[in-house]
Design a protein that fits this description.
It comes from Roseobacter denitrificans (strain ATCC 33942 / OCh 114) (Erythrobacter sp. (strain OCh 114)). Pathway: Amino-acid biosynthesis; L-valine biosynthesis; L-valine from pyruvate: step 1/4; Amino-acid biosynthesis; L-isoleucine biosynthesis; L-isoleucine from 2-oxobutanoate: step 1/4. The chain has 186 residues and is of the alpha+beta class. It has two domains: 76 residues, Alpha-Beta Plaits, CATH 3.30.70.260; 75 residues, Alpha-Beta Plaits (2-Layer Sandwich). 25% of the residues lie in helices and 38% in strands. The strands form two sheets. Strands 5, 6, 7, 8 and 9 form a five-stranded antiparallel β-sheet that branches. The protein has a four-stranded antiparallel β-sheet with strand order 2-3-1-4. Strand 6 and strand 7 form a beta hairpin. The longest helix has 12 residues. The radius of gyration is 23 Å and the shape is elongated.
Length: 186
C-alpha cells in the first residue's frame, strides 16, 4: 500500500489543517439600543466599548419617549460576527438597557445623517461648489463673500461623496450628526 499523499493547501481533514468555523471578516453593523434616560447610562455604554477595545464609528443619542424616560442610542460599529454578537450580549446585560436591535441583520433599514460643510473659496471654485451642492440637494444655510455653509442630509455614503468633492474646492470644516436609523416597514 502506498502512503497517502496530501497536496499542500488542500482541504484535507487532517488535524493539522483545522480552520475555525467562524468568519474573521469585519462587518459594519448599526445597533439601536433603547435605554433609560438617566445619568450615567451613556457612559456605561461607551465604557463597554472602550473597555474591550471596540470601535464606535458613529453614535447618536436622543430621548424618544418623554413620559417613559427612554432614549435611543444608535451605534455604528465594526467587527467580526463574533465580536458583534459579543457587543450585543454585553449591551443587553447593562441594567438600564431595555432592548438591543441589530438593524443590519433584522432586515432592511433606513440610515440618514445630517452634515454641515464650510467651504471657503472665490471665483470658479465658488461657482463649482454651488453647482455640486445643487446636484447633491444640499442647502446653503450661510453665505459670505468668502465662504458657504452647506447643509446636507442623506446616507453616510452620500455625505462622504459630497465631502470628497468639496475638498479640492476649499473644504474648511465639517460637522456631522452621526447616523440615525430605523428598520423599514413590512
Amino acid at each position: 500500500m502506498s502512503p497517502l499523499k496530501i497536496k499542500k493547501g488542500s482541504n484535507s481533514h487532517s488535524a493539522y489543517n483545522l480552520r475555525p468555523t467562524f468568519s474573521d471578516v469585519v462587518e459594519r453593523h448599526t445597533l439601536a439600543v433603547l435605554v433609560e434616560n438617566e445619568p450615567g447610562v451613556l457612559a456605561r455604554v461607551i465604557g463597554l466599548f472602550s473597555g474591550r477595545g471596540y470601535n464606535i464609528d458613529s453614535l447618536t443619542v436622543a430621548e424618544v419617549d418623554h413620559t417613559g424616560h427612554l432614549s435611543r442610542i444608535t451605534i455604528v460599529t465594526s467587527g467580526t460576527p463574533q465580536v458583534i454578537e459579543q457587543i450585543k450580549a454585553q449591551l443587553g446585560r447593562i441594567v438600564s438597557v431595555h432592548d438591543v436591535h441589530d438593524l443590519t441583520v433584522e432586515g432592511k433599514s433606513v440610515e440618514r445623517e445630517l452634515a454641515m460643510f464650510k467651504v471657503v473659496g472665490q471665483g470658479d471654485k465658488r461657482v463649482e461648489a454651488l453647482r455640486l451642492a445643487d446636484i447633491f440637494r444640499a442647502n446653503v444655510v450661510d453665505s459670505t463673500l468668502e465662504s458657504f455653509v452647506f447643509e446636507i442630509t442623506g446616507a453616510p455614503e452620500k455625505i462622504d461623496a459630497f465631502a470628497d468633492l468639496m475638498r479640492p474646492l476649499g473644504l474648511a470644516e465639517v460637522a456631522r450628526t452621526g447616523v440615525a436609523a430605523l428598520s423599514r416597514g413590512e
